[in-house]
């Protein structure tokens, strides 16, 4: 039994588990998926949660292992109920952490809130986190011998396809791409300030902002900075539109202030796109600065502008980073590796 958010959702967990499903991991490992959260208004979310928790309560007897995908704050709080249900039925429990702010959530919680977090992790049999940095952070409230590092993984295109795409990118308008939550945490306003500093020629370079968030505020900022000819605000994209953007993007830019291990960075690398991002969360685990892209400190639009400009002007370095990105995904973040890692965890738990 695997538990998380609706696969129709827009968040990182939905993207992760959709990848499991599309690659056949759920089917091959005989996993049934139970969502407890959906996008929408508060009332819809509450009804969806209650209905699905009841469904879990009815069906949990059929399963040996309960694998729970969670983030921080209310994501963990609502799934704490599921942890208790799984414990009640003596199931093996895996907590799989995705939240960029779990450490902050723990530090800012009340005494009771911290106890709830500690009880959940003490109750679990395994805890999966996305990077060594997150392993160190989680060890504040979880035994190290339970923690296993398994990064998010993605499918990828061939190196030959990357090389073919790159030839086209060098002869057309260079596209800078952002995918994710459009707000302060992901550094979108830092990025817009950086684009203003660059004074880009819209015939040569454009920025595409894609994701959910306060689109009106973002659009007003674009107009205020006079960037309407350089920046296109597309909102949420998926399916063929998202694939086309990834195929044609010259750079992927994600100047986040907090992160776990962003699926969007791995997706960009899987298409051979060099990365400009920040040295926070699990990002350095995926992107080595000067190899697959550049990592800078968050909250610095001037440094961000200079870093983007380096890769716009130095096409040889850009090509080297593009090939390094796809090779890193193939070596370290492939779905085959993920499949084997999950299979081993499940087998070990069943044999205990």
What's the total helix number? 16
Which fold name fills CATH's third level, the topology of the largest domain? Rossmann fold
Categorize the overall geometry. Answer: globular
Q: Please mark out the parts with pLDDT under 50 across 5 or more consecutive residues, or reply none.
A: none
Task: Provide a descriptive summary of the structure in words.
The protein folds into two domains: 2-153 and 334-351, Rossmann fold (3-Layer(aba) Sandwich); 159-332, Glycogen Phosphorylase B (Rossmann fold, 3-Layer(aba) Sandwich). The radius of gyration is 21 Å and the shape is globular. The chain has helices at residues 12-23, 25-28, 42-59, 74-88, 102-108, 111-123, 132-138, 159-169, 188-198, 215-224, 239-248, 263-270, 283-286, 301-313, 315-332, 335-351; strands spanning 2-5, 33-37, 65-70, 92-97, 126-129, 147-149, 174-179, 205-210, 231-235, 249-254, 275-278, 293-296. The longest helix is centred in the first third of the chain and has 18 residues, at 42-59. The protein is 51% helix and 17% strand. The strands form two sheets. It has a six-stranded parallel β-sheet, with helices on both faces. Strands 9-8-7-10-11-12 form a six-stranded parallel β-sheet, with helices on both faces. The model has no long low-confidence stretch (mean pLDDT 93). Helix 4 crosses helix 6 (111-123) and helix 9 (188-198) packs across helix 14 (301-313). It has 352 residues and is α/β, with parallel strands linked by helices. It starts with a strand and ends with a helix.
